[in-house]
Amino acid sequence: MHCNRCYRQEGARFSVTSCGHVLCDACPGSGPCPICAAVCRRFPVPERVS
């Protein structure tokens, strides 16, 4: 799994947006999706899944 914005992989915690993108916690978390600009929510991915 990797962040769709910064491509970070190791040692990161991830969230999945309601529009389907994966973002790490280091990338901005409020406002529209930084990938597609859709209004969306972020849902944390459990560590054992990442």
Question: Would you give an account of this structure?
Answer:
This is R212B protein. InterPro entries: Zip3/RNF212-like (IPR042123), Znf_RING (IPR001841). Keywords: Meiosis, Metal-binding, Zinc, Zinc-finger. It comes from Odontophorus gujanensis. The protein is mainly β. It has one domain (1-50). Helices cover 0% and strands 20% of the residues. A three-stranded antiparallel beta sheet has the order 2-1-3, with no helix packed on it.
Annotate the secondary structure layout.
Elements: E1 14-17, E2 22-24, E3 42-44
Antiparallel strand pairs: 1-2, 1-3
Protein name: R212B protein
Keywords: Meiosis, Metal-binding, Zinc, Zinc-finger
Pfam families: zf-RING_5
